[in-house]
Design a protein that fits this description.
heterodimer, A: about 350 residues, Peroxisomal Thiolase, Chain A, domain 1, 2 domains, 10-stranded mixed β-sheet, 3-stranded mixed β-sheet, 13 helices, B: about 140 residues, mainly beta, about 10% helix, globular
Chain lengths: ~350, ~140
């Protein structure tokens, strides 16, 4: 038995802020082609309120995951927080969430960084720690209030959401892991220097040599390790930087769009970075039937991708009702205009009192 | 600029995050924030309870258009008085994720962790509890 097979997902949960900015408003303000949102297959993006950040969003996602897991928070031995939008550059976010949820002090807690796949690397590492018996339960959180230079094409999709998973022993889990594989290289497709407010990116370079190369190789690596093929999966969830890349990478790997669409959340809220693929998994766990197999392949710039094979168990059915689902957050929305978005995201330069 | 003193912020962090309150074993009432004595009958025979998993009913609220320095981005600031459904504790807290015209007396709200204050762009961030309209009634 490999380490993955000893572990599973006991609880899962997500969070999406209420406020949504229509991408048409970004196109109007910055003079982009009005068809840009349609070409990206993203119509609105989620925007955090002025009192929200990646910690507050991660807290709510983790709280939902805890409700589903039904475990004592004190039994969690590891809180790993994946983000590229930490409220503090130095001071861990993970400790704030761990304290607020009653997990401290008998726990590990730290923040991970690898662009959009920090939480996924944390997830894969937590499988090893839980399988070894070093900790009983692990809390993994992917949360971002993604930044984008105003007027950059990235602004269309950079959005905000959080997803949390509780990893524990396979027995009694809502879904268990079968196998995982990671593929990384030094590929400069997207970066933010230490004191820069916004990230830069390689435009089209973010596609073929970065997103597509790493995801296809991670998934092929998983297939080679396991002997599994696309027909063996009921769902395929890829990192979702826009609404078209996941469908295209799915086609390259032999997955029909019917297996991708249930986990495709980006068209409704944009790219939530560390929550991007994980919120797709969260939505699929809200809907999947016991026995179904899920392919999960997050991606992070810089660059790397992980591929996981996950099988849903009977436990998923009653646990999903213990907390709000992704669809509940998708429905809770209030449209705002670019001016309010600019205020909420701190884009207006002013003398502060 | 809002000034945040480190020691009291640190000392009260768990009380704020978990919404701790004092329940009196003599008169049965629950007071918030927590206190040594029962704020209703003065008894020392009390216990600490957490209200973080409890919904609350909105009693009344005020919409503040003249916000103090450091709160301009949050204007209008909405502050509510709520009563928790189980312990019947009265809580004064900011309301969030809601527009003033959506507020109704008696509406059910739930506590969420939010940024309450921050000391400029370089100082501490003070996290605490705000209330928002209940997202969804789920199995408890």
């Amino acid at each position: 038995m490999n380490p993955e097979e000893k572990t599973g997902i006991l609880g899962w949960g997500s969070y999406i802020p209420r406020w949504r900015l229509p991408l048409a408003d970004i196109a109007r303000v910055w003079g982009f082609n009005p068809k840009e949102p349609e070409e990206l297959n993203v119509l609105e993006k989620s925007v955090p309120g002025v009192d929200e950040d990646s910690v507050t969003m991660g807290w709510e996602a983790a709280r939902n995951a805890l409700k589903r897991a039904g475990i004592d928070p004190g039994e969690i031995g590891l809180v790993w927080f994946g983000t590229e939008s930490k409220p503090y550059a130095v001071k861990p976010s993970a400790t704030i969430i761990a304290e607020a949820l009653g997990i401290t002090p008998d726990t590990m807690a730290t923040d991970w960084e690898f662009a959009c796949r920090a939480a996924s690397e944390a997830l894969r590492a937590s499988i090893g720690v839980v399988a070894s018996g070093m900790v009983k339960y692990a809390l993994i959180i992917g949360s971002d209030t993604a930044q984008a230079n105003p007027g950059d094409v990235l602004e269309f999709t950079a959005s905000s959401a959080a997803t949390a998973l509780i990893v524990g022993p396979r027995e009694g889990a809502a879904a268990f892991f079968e196998a995982s594989y990671t593929y990384v290289t030094d590929t400069p497709d997207f970066w933010r220097r230490a004191h820069a407010h916004y990230p830069l990116h390689g435009e089209a370079f973010t596609g073929e040599p970065a997103y597509f190369h790493h995801i296809t190789n991670a998934v092929k690596g998983l297939f080679e390790r396991t002997g599994l093929k696309p027909d063996d999966f009921d769902y395929a969830i890829f990192h979702q930087p826009n609404g078209t890349f996941p469908l295209r990478v799915g086609r390259m790997l032999g997955f029909p769009k019917e297996k991708i669409l249930p986990g495709l959340v980006t068209p409704y809220i944009g790219n939530s970075y560390n929550s991007s693929a994980l919120i797709g998994l969260s939505k699929v766990l809200d809907e999947a039937k016991p026995g179904q197999r899920i392919l999960l392949a997050p991606f992070g710039s810089g660059a790397g991708s992980d591929a996981y094979s996950i099988v849903v168990t009977e436990e998923v059915v009653h646990r999903r009702e213990r907390a709000p689902k992704v669809s509940d957050y998708l429905q809770r929305k209030q449209l705002i205009d670019y001016a309010l978005y600019a205020k909420y995201r701190g884009l207006i330069d002013r003398i502060k009192g | 600029m809002v000034r945040i003193s480190i020691p009291p912020t640190w000392r009260t962090r768990v009380d704020r995050y978990r919404l701790k309150a004092t329940r009196c074993r003599e008169c049965g009432r629950t007071g918030y924030p927590p206190s040594e004595l029962c704020r209703f009958c003065g008894s020392r025979n009390t216990e600490t309870v957490e209200l973080i998993d409890e919904r609350a009913k909105l009693i009344t609220w005020t919409v503040i258009y003249s916000a103090m320095d450091g709160f301009e981005e949050r204007r209008p600031v909405i502050i509510g008085i709520l009563e928790t459904l189980h312990h019947k504790a009265r809580i004064l807290a900011p309301l969030t994720d809601v527009l003033p015209e959506e507020l109704r007396s008696g509406m059910e709200m739930e506590p969420v962790l939010r940024r309450i204050t921050e000391e400029g762009e370089s100082g501490l961030i003070n996290y605490g509890i705000a209330y928002r309209p209940v997202l969804k009634k789920v199995e408890q």
